[in-house]
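Appendix B, record 7
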Amino acid sequence: MRAWSPVEIPTLPVSGPEVSLHDTSTGGRLTSAPVDAARMYVCGITPYDATHIGHANTYLAFDLLNRAWRSAGRTVRFVQNVTDVDDPLLERADKVGVDWVELAERETELFRQDMQALRILPPDALVGAVESIPLVIDLIQRLDAAGAIYRVEDDLYYSVAADPAFGAESHYDRDTMLRFFGERGGDPERDGKKDPLDPVVWRGERPGEPAWDSPFGRGRPGWHIECAAIALEHLGTTFDVQGGGSDLVFPHHEMCAGHAQVAAGEPFARIYSHAGMVGYGGEKMSKSLGNLVFVSALRNSDIDPMAVRLTLLRHHYRTDWEWTDEQLFAAVDDLATWRRAFSLGAGAPAAPVVTEVLAALGDDLDAPRAVAAIDAWAKATLGTDGLADTSDPEAAATLLPVLDAALGLAV
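Structure tokens (predicted):
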């Protein structure tokens, strides 16, 4: 599956610091200083609808990590999936009377356009669930050889008891796990399972649903096994960061880790990093509530995508927050102010701002702190608190590449 077109990143004359990130599994900070290429897997979309601001918030967070690694002089290997066959997609296609393949292709293309507009760096490998079915089959066979697979009627399940480290990523108690498992695509009430938390890895063929041949009978992959198989194939074990929204902590990332660790005998990822949830109208954005703000709708209403990106950057990636139109319109005004300041060429001293921006992003991707440094520079340059400071004749030329490379803003 093709990704979107790459974004040209300026080469900076200075290096950023090594990146420290909050790790969900330990609850603390870990410094990511890979010996060779930094390896990152970020869980992608299920393409049954357009990209909304919650998606954009997550993908921007890990775009900042990608950029911070590069600023620190690291090469990056970034992999992302697209779950182009799964229950939500099939249900949506049936409801609107559209072929599920057509729906998946259409929404995946819209996702590419949205990511391109927001200047998200593309993955080195964008891999669909359908094309990864051979990888899934191989991983299931490895798990079966380890004694971790059993059958319930036509479906295959993975036994969470096979991984001694089960629960070490999320640290949730069993009641919380059961609640989230039921709310997030699991089937804890199904008869015949060894443990209510065991996830399906191969769903046997149902009438009217797509299915593929396998040694276990015709069917299709489960959700968690898809990401585990793709990550193992393209990144190997113990890669640097497993990323996604905080709603993926359990069951998705816990199950992915279990699948990989039982099959490979090594840790799945070094750091588990999660972006906060974005709300709208007092609730988390979700399809079921109908309170989604779509990136494409904003683009089609002549909103500068950089204003959307700046709105997201003003919130720390791990926080939960609420989108409002007022924040977006403030970002439009802020960009206009920044552009006036940059148009002068000269401005307030730029070197301390460069240092602060790169340091902020190395410090658990603190984009609000980085943006505040640019705000202060623009304010000083334009003299909004008094006399304008244009003591640095090369200020704009120094700062613009940093905004581009580190924050992804084309100003």
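Remarks on this record: The mean pLDDT is 96. The longest helix spans residues 53-71.
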